[in-house]
Amino acid sequence: MTLAATTVAASGTPGFLSPTGVEIAFLLVGLVTLGAALVTVTTRQLVHAALWLVVALGGLAVEYLLLTAEFIAWVQVLIYVGSVVVLLLFGLMLTKAPIGRSPDADSGNRWAALTVAVAAAVALVWVVVDAFRATWIDLDGPAAGTTEVTGASLFRHWVLPFEALSVLLLAALVGAIVLSRKARADAGPTAPGKEGAR
Question: Which residues of 166-194 are buried (b: 16+ CB within 10 A; e: fewer)?
Fold first, then answer.
């Protein structure tokens, strides 16, 4: 037993000097997820961006599994990977988005976007660290992310964000329909001669 492990056992509180295999896997998957997210927002090929988004969202699902929140992990896969990304891909196909590199995919506001992204990341990290400063997840204890525990917490304390997520999914569906109808309207009516030839 190392000195760090002895210290943790004696104090009863976990420490950063003795990472377990789960914590190392969590860090590695987090780095892969971060890399996939960066490629998603920097690539100029829309289809590649959608596919890298699948990798990023799948990495988040693995992170949830490592935190013993299996229900949230499967919800992540079913809703985000299975619904939102599929709607995004259908939207790309229905609007006949270019498959190769698309120069017009970059609006030229990279510095503004980078500033907003860094500010949002700093605010998110600060809120999470401040909220869970002294909270540790016992990965060796009973699973805290089961369906029963998650459902009780979700519908007792988090009803409004749950409904907001439903509105988000509805907006994604309506947006895909609107984009597909707009593409048809831009195509214009077919010529009478062509219609008769059919």
Answer: eeeeeeeeeebeeeeeeeeeeeeeeeeee
C-alpha Rg value of the chain to the nearest Å:
23
Confidence (pLDDT) at 59:
94
Question: Cα 186 from chain centroid?
Answer: 32
The DSSP 8-state label assigned to residue 99 in this structure reads: S
Tokens of 9: 């056992």
Exposed, middle or buried by CB within 10 Å (0-12, 13-18, 19+), for 59? buried
Q: Is the pTM above the cut of 0.70?
A: no
How far is residue 124's CA from residue 122's CA, in Å, rounded to a whole number? Answer: 5
At residue 16, what are phi and psi to the nearest 5 degrees?
A: -90, -5
User: How far is Cα 18 from Cα 10, in angstroms, rounded to an integer?
Assistant: 13
Residue 64 parent element (H or E): helix 46-66
If one counts every other C-beta atom within 10 angstroms of the C-beta of residue 148, the result is: 8
- 57 within 8 A of 32, measured Cβ to Cβ: no
Is the pLDDT assigned to residue 36 strictly greater than 90? yes
pLDDT tens profile 105-115: 666 777 888 89
**How confident is the model over 12-33, as a mean pLDDT?**
79
Q: Residue 198 — very low, low, confident or very high, per pLDDT cuts 50/70/90?
A: very low
Helix (H) / strand (E) containing 183: helix 159-187
State which amino acid sits at residue 31.
Answer: L
How large is the average pLDDT for residues 27-43? 91
